[in-house]
Amino acid sequence: MIETRAIVVRAGEGKAWVRLLEHHGGCGRCDEPGGCHAPQFAEMFRGKGKTFTVVDPFGLRVDERIRIVIDDGVPLRAALASYGLGTALALVGAVLGVWLAPVAQADLGAGMGLALGIAVTMIILSIRARWHGSTAWRMRVERDGENAATGCMGMGHGA
User: With contact defined as beta carbons under 8 Å apart, do 62 and 10 qualify?
Assistant: First the structure.
C-alpha cells in the first residue's frame, strides 16, 4: 500500500479539503526490483502544499492529521481499465471500420470505428462506476497514527 500524510484545512458535507504535509523526494530505488514505484502517487497530488478534496468517513475537523492510502494494484487496475480497454476497443473499432467500409472509404471507416471504440469504452467505464461504485478505484482516508512506517518518498508501505 502507498500512503502519505495530510492535514485537514476545511471539512463539511461529507468531504474534507486536505493539504499534503510531506515532500516526496524519492530514495532512488523506486523503479528497481523491490522498489515501491511511488513517484506515480506523488505526481497525482503534484507535491507538497496542494489542497484537494477527499471523502470524509469520520467527520474530520480542521487541523486534524490524516493518512491518505491507495492499496497496491489500484493505479495499475485503473490504468488498464481506462488506457488498456480504450486502446483495445479503439483498435478493434478501427479494424472493423476498415473491414465494413467500401474500399474507397476505408480511412473514413477506420476513423469512425476508432471513435466508436472510444465511445464504447466510456460507456463501459461509466456503467461499471454506476453498478460497482467508484470505491474500488479511490484512495481511502485513515486517521493518522504514530505507528505508520515510512519508506520510499516518505510513504508508508504495508505487506
Answer: yes
- pLDDT tens string, the chain, 159 residues long: the values are 778 888 899 988 888 888 888 655 555 556 566 666 555 555 555 555 578 788 888 888 899 998 888 888 888 888 888 899 999 999 999 999 999 999 999 999 999 999 999 999 999 988 988 886 655 556 778 887 643 444 444 444 443
Asked if 139 contacts 8 with a C-beta cutoff of 8 angstroms, the reply is no
Spatial distance between the Cα atoms of 122 and 112, rounded to a whole number of angstroms: 15
Backbone phi, psi, residue 143, to 5°: -70, 140
Considering the entire predicted model, what is its pTM? 0.55
Q: Which set of grid coordinates corresponds to residue 69? A: 492510502
Measured CA angle at 15 (ends 61, 143), to 5 deg = 50
Query: Do 137 and 130 touch, CB atoms closer than 8 A?
Result: no
Question: Which residues, 6 or more positions from 8, have their beta carbon under 8 angstroms from its beta carbon?
Answer: 16, 17, 18, 60, 61, 62, 63, 64, 65, 66
Q: How far apart are CA 157 and CA 159, in angstroms?
A: 7
